[in-house]
Amino acid sequence: MEWIDINVRLPKNEERILAFIPNNKVVLPGLSGLELREVIVLRFIENFYADRPDKAEKHGIHFWQGEGNSNHFFGDVTHWMPIPNGPNE
Fold first, then answer.
1. Total count of domains within the chain
2. How far apart are alpha carbons 1 and 32 in whole angstroms?
3. Does residue 87 sit within a domain?
């Protein structure tokens, strides 16, 4: 599977994807300091700020909804790919 540039194609609305966020740092429970996690699972939300033109202008009209505490503004993600199926058993 190949990474898809967000400028080439976007996921379907509400689709869960693997997102690439350059230099994304997170604090993980039980660890001191930050850890680099550039690939995370997000859900694409189309036209999230459609009724908020001030937010859309500042952050982009779309939004990436995270699992847990990992929401991201649209411009944070540079590439994405569908989540692959698990192994066949």
1. 1
2. 34
3. no
pTM: 0.77
In a domain, 9, yes or no: yes
Cα–Cα dist 31/4, whole Å:
32
Q: Which residues does 54 contact at the CB level (< 8 Å), separation at least 6? A: none
Q: Is 87 left (phi over 0), alpha (psi -120 to 50) or beta?
A: beta
Structure tokens at 16: 């869960």
Question: pLDDT tens across 3-41, in order?
Answer: 999 999 999 999 999 999 999 887 777 666 778 888 888
Pairing of strands 35-36, 79-82: unpaired
The position carrying tokens 């859900």 is 43
